[in-house]
């Protein structure tokens, strides 16, 4: 999991976020402690705490004094909205700009994506009404 190009505390935060998004950490569930995260990833507990505190500041986790950290209600929706926005900025906006340069319209893009999805995962491409 360790990515040399990204700060460790960010990787810790993203790992916890991924668990919330995929449902393995549900709302009100207790999140791993900083010591557990530090031991698992073999990092300094202060580094793990920095990642966890970032999630507290963002409203994804909350502290219960003397008990630990818990997933905040609505955390999954918050994270999904945040990641969708980032996905749009990182991938969709440049895709649309390049498509415009190539003279491709929305229907062309849907067809290209649908065709690519069929090659990448033939089972999901056959789902009616869902081009992806």
Q: Please report the total strand number as a whole number.
A: 2
Would you give the CATH topology of the largest domain? Arc Repressor Mutant, subunit A
How many structural domains? 2
The radius of gyration computed from the alpha-carbon positions, rounded to a whole number of angstroms, is 19 Å
Return the CATH class of the largest domain: Mainly Alpha
- Overall 3D form: elongated
- Which stretches of 5+ consecutive residues score pLDDT under 50? none
Fraction in beta strands: 5-15%
Query: What is the H/E string?
Result: HHHEEHHH
What does this structure look like?
The protein has 132 residues and is mainly α. The chain has two domains: 8-73, Winged helix-like DNA-binding domain superfamily/Winged helix DNA-binding domain (Arc Repressor Mutant, subunit A, Orthogonal Bundle); 86-125, no CATH class. Helix content is 63%, strand content 6%. The protein contains six helices and two strands. It has a two-stranded antiparallel sheet with strand order 1-2. Helix 1 (8-21) crosses helix 3. The two termini are 28 Å apart.
Q: Which tags fit this structure?
A:
132 residues, mainly alpha, Arc Repressor Mutant, subunit A, two-stranded antiparallel sheet, 6 helices, 2 strands
Brief overview:
This protein has 132 residues and is mainly α.
What's the layout of helices and strands?
Layout (H helix, E strand, L loop, with lengths): L7 H14 L12 H8 L3 H14 L2 E4 L3 E4 L3 H28 L3 H15 L1 H4 L7
Antiparallel strand pairs: 1-2
Helix pairs in contact: 1-3, 2-3
